[in-house]
């Protein structure tokens, strides 16, 4: 067996060849919105999306307090939204390199819209204080559950990316 490559094989091309900072700087507003929204969502997926604080006050033991929090990856809706926003970022880069075509534009709009819906669904799945029923059943117990900073920012970023994808879709329909 020889170590030389087959004469019929072609070298693998880098799909991001030709991407430089100038292309991103000179990109239109919709592309910048999609890129910024997807990059920000990528980062804020690792921040806390919800938190829970439980406090128990008793005359015998004093007070005990515990906290817990979760990020995008603790519920499947957050993971799916995060993956969809990564796809939006990849599609925005591909549109920069190869120009927008019908498939890229529709896929970016679909992925960003679905990511927005999955982020809202994640928020809806966070249990409320009354859902837990602990505080009302026991005196001296307080429970505080709610959305955290990361979820609010991720929701805003998914709206930004969806707006960019919609603007791209409208521009593509007019051309």
Task: Provide structural commentary.
The chain is α+β, with helices and mostly antiparallel strands and 175 residues long. It has a single domain (29-174), classed as Butyryl-CoA Dehydrogenase, subunit A, domain 3 (Up-down Bundle). It is 58% helix and 14% strand. It has a three-stranded antiparallel β-sheet. Strand 1 (50-58) and strand 2 (62-70) form a beta hairpin. The longest helix is centred in the last third of the chain and has 26 residues, at 149-174. It is elongated, with a radius of gyration of 23 Å.
Task: Compile the SSE list and pairings.
Blueprint: H1 21-25, H2 29-44, E1 50-58, E2 62-70, H3 76-98, H4 102-125, H5 129-132, H6 134-137, E3 141-147, H7 149-174
Antiparallel strand pairs: 1-2, 1-3
What can be said about the biggest beta sheet? 3 strands, antiparallel
Strand line-up of the largest beta sheet: 2-1-3
- State the share of residues found in helices, binned by percent: 55-70%
CATH architecture: Up-down Bundle
What is the mean predicted local confidence, pLDDT? 84
Q: Which CATH class applies here?
A: Mainly Alpha
The rough form would be described as elongated
Low-pLDDT ranges: none
Radius of gyration: 23 Å
Order of helices and strands: HHEEHHHHEH
Count the helices. How many?
Answer: 7
Number of strands: 3
What is the domain tally? 1
